[in-house]
Amino acid sequence: MSRAAPRSHILSRLPLVLLLLLLLQAVGRGLGRANPAGGPLEDVVIERYHIPRACPREVQMGDFVRYHYNGTFEDGKKFDSSYDRSTLVAIVVGVGRLITGMDRGLMGMCVNERRRLIVPPHLGYGSIGVAGLIPPDATLYFDVVLLDVWNKADSVQVSTLLRPPQCPRMVQDSDFVRYHYNGTLLDGTAFDTSYSRGGTYDTYVGSGWLIKGMDQGLLGMCPGERRKIIIPPFLAYGEKGYGTVIPPQASLVFHVLLIDVHNPKDTVQLETLELPPGCVRRAEAGDFMRYHYNGSLMDGTLFDSSYSRNHTYNTYVGQGYIIQGMDQGLQGACIGERRRITIPPHLAYGENGTGDKIPGSAVLIFDVHIIDFHNPVDPVEVKTLSRPPDACNETAKPGDYIRYHYNCSLLDGTKLFSSHDYGAPQEATLGANKVIEGLDTGLQGMCVGERRQLIVPPHLAHGENGARGVPGSAVLLFEVELVSREDGLPTGYLFVWHKDPPANLFEELDLNKDGEVPPEEFSAFINAQVSEGKGRLMPGRDPEKTIADMFQNQDRNQDGKITPEELKLKTDEDQERVHEEL
């Protein structure tokens, strides 16, 4: 209670002469409750019947305190109570604004401590009392609970409760922060919490948007750090308080968890976590990239991951298909590189955020693994690993029948296919659309025994859709070795003569001279020409199947035999009959 308060245990505003008389009477008469020895009390009796476990601060002279009390006489009759007025006493201790007994009884108290004070008359209202309220020579009993204490010399008190092992950045003036908090009075009474609203408190620091004490208490914090910030009222809401939840002259306690921090002037921050050796190419705007990522907020909360979908994220870089910060952060990366990309909100999803996982004004952190990238105009990259020691006069060309071994993998080393798994070389005719275009191109010009490394972009491989076992838009890495090569046949030919054919071809075919050639005679004749080196069949096919196709082409009426009228050389056939050949 203050001097001005009516019905209080504090000295009233009495005339000076009357006041002196009161004090003289109190001292002279020595009135009051007898002490245990039988005489009157000489000082305040203090019973500390509830002492909190933690007492970081005790009341000292000159401190400002806020407390509740019940005041009674020795018989238990109540004469005053702050509870009845629903108003705490808020006053400075030890400067004469309280009765002497209360001044003394509050010294050394802790917040939330409860005391019973017995105040003898000469330390209370003496022999005069308070008219209509406190009789003369009354011993007063007070039950007091201290709820707040501070001093004008106080500053903001900061206690770090948890500091993350890594602190990439600390809060500075003009930064924008997102944090959670629980706000209580010094006695633990909660007045506000961001958690109940389901969102962080977002604001600028040092720009006048916060109470001064919070502005100071947030400085130097790291994302993920927890702090306890105690703010004296003159750096909080002062004499007026705030609404019905923060009373006047209240110290405030905030338990704060900093979620993230950025500055409007921030740019994308890059940190290389792993750089593979031999990086010969870096991603540029216009490249198409496949990468894996984990996306988290600054406090470590994961909001998305390509790994959870078991699929890379595939996109063009620098073309506006992704957020601006990621567009910037991916450029300059190497295949196989792992990098951390920290993106401020103005280069991410801004003040509004997106969906229910990325809040407004959130800093985003992406841990990225570059799987591969290419440009839509990339050719096949060919690197010779080894060549045979002997001179190579003939190399593979379109139409040639070749046999080769290969290992195929993705650029991150993931093995896809290998001819060695089948125990035999792969067979193909170059230029016949039997293999993907990039591999066909890379095999051309090879010598038998040569080994090459081929990097095939997806538009020359399996494209956007991929194939069985091959992801869409994947760059493929081949290691190939040419095992053998045979000259191919001209387009449309199944058999060619090494020299001129016989002058009377039908008579040579008609082995039994009956004027017609059945399949058996035709097959025997062609096989004989091949074995004698007079001609050769298309390589890479079953010889009997090729001979059967040749017979089918010549048996024009499909009666199972060839007559002289039906037999024609390929060079003599009509141009429209592109499938008739010998």
From TrEMBL:
Signal sequence segment: 1-32
Reactions accelerated catalytically: [protein]-peptidylproline (omega=180) = [protein]-peptidylproline (omega=0)
Name of protein: peptidylprolyl isomerase
InterPro entries found in the cross-reference section: EF-hand-dom_pair, EF_Hand_1_Ca_BS, EF_hand_dom, FKBP-like_isomerase, PPIase_dom_sf, PPIase_FKBP_dom
Region (Disordered): 550-582
Occurrences of domain PPIase FKBP-type (ranges): 62-150, 174-262, 286-374, 399-486
Keyword Cell membrane included in the entry's annotation: no
EC number of the protein: 5.2.1.8
Enzyme class, broadest EC rank: isomerase
Job description of the protein: PPIases accelerate the folding of proteins during protein synthesis.
Ranges of compositional bias, category Basic and acidic residues: 556-582
Protein keywords: Calcium, Endoplasmic reticulum, Glycoprotein, Isomerase, Metal-binding, Repeat, Rotamase, Signal
